[in-house]
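Researcher: Please predict.
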Amino acid sequence: MILVLLGPPGAGKGTQAQRIQESRGLTHLSTGDMLRAAVASGSGLGGKVKGIMEAGHLVPDDVIVEMIVDRLAEHGSEGGVILDGFPRTTAQARALEKTLSQRGLKLDRVIQIAVDTDTMVQRIAGRFACEDCGAGYHDTNQPTKAAGVCDNCGGIRFLRRPDDNPKAVRARFEAYEAQTAPLLPYYRSQGLLRGVDGMRTIDDVTAEIEKALDAA
């Protein structure tokens, strides 16, 4: 199975992808994780995309497509994959179809996780993590039990992703609406698109996705 998860930043694509990966034995490919790893490595690709990501803009199609094609070849797409964060534009969607066709494969399902923009901006902008162990927290939804002290390791150093601020988050949502939202009618016309309510509980969203994957 080749599955695409669509949804704006913070919609829960990563969480749901991990669950589907475990239940269906698929390989989870996240463009966000790959890009952040490239930035952290200090590679040429990382330097190219760092400023773009921190400003909340989308990385150019040619960079993303090249990275995804390499990872599909590396992981063996024949075993089934979940694409999280790709495609983001119709140009990328067409490039994906071409890549899959060259391997005798096709896209099986596209799941759209729909969420409320204002709620998601607040959710994302409040995220922070322990610098020592990586444990994640949120200003209002999941603060540390003791102010300024990590529940997991007792560390007192915390960090926030540079692009997790209200201005950058809204810019990412605007970029999503402008460039990614057109994918919805594109995939709907092919009979591939299924929508789920991303504002429900994590378990409820998972159940909706599983039902959509099993639907004819």
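Model: Residues 115 and 200 are 9 Å apart (CA to CA).
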